[in-house]
Write a structure and sequence with these properties.
Layout: E1 4-5, H1 9-15, H2 22-25, E2 51-52, E3 58-62, E4 65-72, E5 76-77, E6 81-82, H3 85-92, E7 96-104, H4 109-115, H5 131-134, H6 137-150, H7 162-176, E8 179-180, H8 183-195, E9 199-206, H9 212-221, H10 227-242, H11 244-253, H12 256-259, H13 265-276, H14 285-288, H15 290-308, E10 311-317, H16 318-322, H17 327-333, E11 337-339
Parallel strand pairs: 1-7, 2-6, 4-10, 7-9, 7-10
Antiparallel strand pairs: 3-4, 3-11, 5-8
């Protein structure tokens, strides 16, 4: 579920898992080994040349009504140009745009301002601990090697929780490789949607903020069991970077078979799960089940759109599309006909 757009504590809590496909996100396949014997040079910048059409669209059908689903992916090379006449034509002839699942919290401006001082130190380990204190020795040795490559000037990251250190490492490594989060594609699509004057439907669920101050306080003193998040991030980082060209090209030319090989489950569980299973959220059930709630809202909105419109256009991340427990699988289970792009 990406992105989660929330102020105050939410920005710190929910930014971290955003690498999986964004903050729109960027995925990483499982299992690779990164040597700790020596500091490897940063990879050369990655290039995808020529204008590419992007992936085809998934068709969810109800009679002669169609929900067209375009799958977004990141990271992408920053110099890649993209355009799809098919997508432009679908948007032009659709009646509604269905936004991806998400979450938001709106405490109000003045309340948010009063919460800002509470956020100081929210990214840091409790009790002044550093990464060497919370990571197994082998993991810290691997972290030290990668930090020397990608974050040599960032000494503050040593005091951050593993989940935030993993975020910083991922962002720095991808920037060094010339990769971006793919928002340029989404921005282009949103401009087309606005130009076509489509009805825009949000599927965000709203998170309660009545106990925000207590939530921040509890989070700052709680342990997240997030060492596995940094370990998994480090294990997949080299493969993430080495395979970026192939995966970006697969997305750009619409190679669905290659895209299906991507697997975000291990990293998603290690990082997002560490946040959502935190004891700090034990008193906030609406936060704990936010993913299920946002997916349920998206599915309900999709069914409503299919009933009302001849053509609806939607954006989903590729991992949401391929997830066997995701929203597309749920529509299939409800009896809708779903056609994958050729």
């Amino acid at each position: 579920m990406r992105p989660l757009v929330v102020p105050a504590l939410c920005l710190s809590l929910l930014a971290a898992p955003g690498w999986a496909q964004s903050l729109d996100g960027a995925g990483a396949p499982p299992a690779a080994v990164v040597t700790t014997d020596a500091v490897e040079p940063a990879p050369e910048q990655i290039h995808v040349v020529a204008q590419r059409p992007g992936p085809g669209m998934w068709k969810v059908k109800k009679g002669d009504h169609v929900l067209w689903v375009f799958g977004t992916y990141a990271p992408l090379p920053k110099n890649m140009t993209w355009r799809s006449q098919q997508v432009e034509n679908v948007i032009k002839h659709s009646q509604e745009y269905l936004a991806p699942p998400g979450a938001t919290a709106k405490p109000g401006f003045f309340r948010m301002v009063t919460l800002l001082p509470s956020l100081i130190g929210v990214r840091k380990n409790p009790d002044g601990a550093q990464l060497r204190d919370v990571l197994p020795q082998e993991d810290y040795a691997q972290w030290s090697t990668l930090k020397a490559t990608y974050l040599p000037e960032n000494s503050d990251v040593e005091r951050e929780r593993p989940i935030f250190a993993a975020q910083a490492l991922t962002e720095a490594a991808r920037k060094e490789a010339g990769l971006v989060n793919g928002y340029a594609v989404r921005k282009q699509l949103l401009a087309l949607i606005k130009k076509s004057e489509l009805k825009q439907t949000s599927t965000e669920v709203e998170l309660p903020t009545d106990n925000a101050r207590a939530l921040i306080k509890n989070f700052k003193k709680s342990n997240l069991a997030d060492a596995a998040c940094l370990r998994t991030t480090m294990a997949t980082l080299k493969q993430d970077l080495d395979g970026a060209t192939a995966r970006a090209n697969a997305w750009a030319k619409g190679d669905v078979d290659e895209m299906r090989k991507l697997n975000y489950a291990e990293r998603e569980e290690a990082c997002f799960g560490a946040l959502m299973n935190s004891a700090a959220l034990d008193t906030e059930p609406e936060w704990k089940n936010v993913k299920a709630r946002s997916h349920a809202k998206w599915i309900a909105s999709a069914e409503k759109a299919l009933a009302a419109n001849a053509s609806t256009f939607a954006l989903l991340s590729m991992d949401d599309i391929f997830d066997p427990k995701g929203v597309i699988a749920a529509l299939v289970a409800k009896g809708y006909e779903v056609e994958s792009p050729e």
